[in-house]
């Protein structure tokens, strides 16, 4: 599988960078705990196809960041 994801509405986007940015936004909005909250908070900031394709990965990265922050205390 390619490292890039071609979105229907935009040029080639780096998948890893998009997931990282989405995860950061989910942490900022505190909306990574449920899929529906995550989708609602990302809607309007990212293309709908990107949200549908990457929301689970972004939630996982956000959860890992949260666990890492808690463990480092």
**Sequence of secondary-structure elements:** EEHHH
Strand order of the largest sheet: 1-2
> How much helical structure, as a percent, in the residues?
55-70%
Strand content: 5-15%
Measured between the Cα atoms of the first and last residue, the distance is 37 Å
Total beta strands: 2
User: Which regions contain 5 or more consecutive residues with pLDDT less than 50?
Assistant: none
- Which class of secondary structure composition applies to the elements? mainly alpha
Mean pLDDT: 88
Main beta sheet: 2 strands, antiparallel
- If helices are DSSP runs of H or I spanning 4 or more residues, what is the number of helices? 3
Rg result: 12 Å
Shape: globular
For the record, the count of structural domains works out to 1
In short:
The protein is mainly alpha-helical and 73 residues long. It has helices at residues 15-29, 35-42, 48-71; strands at 4-5, 13-14. The protein is globular, with a radius of gyration of 12 Å.
């Amino acid at each position: 599988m390619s490292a890039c994801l071609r979105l229907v509405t935009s040029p080639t986007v780096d998948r890893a960078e998009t997931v990282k940015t989405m995860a950061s936004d989910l942490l900022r909005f505190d909306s990574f705990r449920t899929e529906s909250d995550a989708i609602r908070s990302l809607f309007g900031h990212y293309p709908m196809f990107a949200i549908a394709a990457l929301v689970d990965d972004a939630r996982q990265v956000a959860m890992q960041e949260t666990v890492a922050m808690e463990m480092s205390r």
